[in-house]
Amino acid sequence: MMLSTGLPPVFLLLTALELSWSLTDEEKRIILDGHNKYRSQVSPPAMDMLKMSWDTELEAFAQAYAEKCIWDHNKERGRRGENLFAMAPTLDLEFAVEDWNGEEKYYNLTTSVCVPGQMCGHYTQVVWANTHRIGCGAKFCEKIDGIETEDMYLLVCNYYPPGNVKGRKPYKEGPSCSQCPEGRVCVKSLCESTVEETTPTSVTTSTTTTPEPTTTSPTMATVKPELTTIPPTQTQVPTTSMAKPKPTVPEPTIATGKPKPITLTTAMPKPNTTTTAK
Ligand SMILES: *[C@@H]1O[C@H](CO)[C@@H](O)[C@H](O)[C@H]1NC(C)=O
Ligand SMILES: *[C@@H]1O[C@H](CO)[C@@H](O)[C@H](O)[C@H]1NC(C)=O
C-alpha cells in the first residue's frame, strides 16, 4: 500500500507526535494557580472576583494557535481574551503569569488609566473579575513570526468571557466577595462555583470584531504583544458625523487611546539569554 504523500510512515508519526506536544497537567496547574493567586490578592480588594477554572476547549484553541508560532493576536479568537508570552531558552510559566500581573504597578484602578508608554492589558485580563475560564497552550518555535530571536517558547492563554472591555474596570473595588454572583461562595477572597462548571458553548461563536494589534519589535527574550481591547457589546455612539463608514478597527489600547509599541520587560528571567534583536 502506498501513502499518497509519498512520505515514509515513520516521518508521519514523528510529525504527529511533535504537533501533539502540549502543557503537562503540572504546568497547567501552575498557570491556573498563578492566576487565582493574583486574583485573590488584588489591592484594593474585589467584591466580585470569580475563581478561574481550566477549560479544555480554550486549551485546545490556544494550543492550536501556539503551534503556528506567530507573534500577534489570533484574529480568529472571537469572544475570547488572549495573553501571549515568549521566552528563551526555557519557558518559566510561573514567571510568565507573574510578569503579566506585574503590569499592576502601571495601572490606576481609580482612573482606569495605564501609565503612558506602558502596558496594562495583560494585568487587567489576569484580574478581570468575570473571566472565569482559562486555557493555554505552548510551543517551542525555532522561529516565531514577528520576533527575530530564534528558538523561543511561545505561550498562548485564552480567556472566557474576555476581559479588557473598553470603558470597564477589571473588577469592583470593595469588601472581598461582597458581590459574588448567585451560586458562588467565597473561598480565599474568590467567588468559587459550588457546582461543576460546564464549558460554555458561546466560546466557540465569534461575534465581535476585534482590533488589529500593533506591530511589535521585541528586543529581549521575554516579550509580550500589546493587548487589544474588546469593544463593548452595547451599541456605540458614533463619534463622527462624516459620511464614511466607521472603522472596524477600534483603538487598540486599554486606557490611553493610542497604539503603543511593545514595551521592554525590565525583568530578565535568565541572565543567560543571548538575545538582542534590533
Ligand atoms: C490614581 O489616580 C488618582 C487620580 O489622579 C490619584 O488620586 C491616585 O493617587 C492614583 N492612585 C494611585 C495608586 O496612583
Ligand atoms: C548558559 O547556558 C548554557 C547552556 O544553555 C550553560 O552551559 C551555561 O552554563 C549557562 N551559563 C550561565 C552563566 O548560566
Radius of gyration (CA) equals 20 Å
Strand content: 15-25%
- Give the strand line-up of the largest sheet: 1-5-6-2
| DSSP summary, beta strand count | 8
Q: Helix/strand-derived class? A: alpha+beta
Mean pLDDT: 75
Number of helices: 5
Subunit structure: Interacts with PSP94/MSMB.
Function: May inhibit cardiomyocyte growth.
Family: Belongs to the CRISP family.
Subcellular location: Secreted
Q: What descriptive keywords fit this protein?
A:
single chain; 278 residues; 5 helices; 8 strands; 15% strand; disordered C terminus; binds 2-acetamido-2-deoxy-beta-D-glucopyranose; signal
How would you explain this protein's 3D organization?
This protein is of the alpha+beta class. The chain has helices spanning 9-19, 25-40, 56-66, 93-101, 121-126, and strands spanning 53-54, 81-87, 107-108, 113-114, 133-143, 150-160, 184-187, 190-193. The strands form three sheets. A four-stranded mixed beta sheet has the order 1-5-6-2, with helices on both faces. The longest helix is centred in the first third of the chain and has 16 residues, at 25-40. It is globular. Residues 197-219, 228-240, 263-278 have a biased composition (Low complexity). Interacts with PSP94/MSMB.
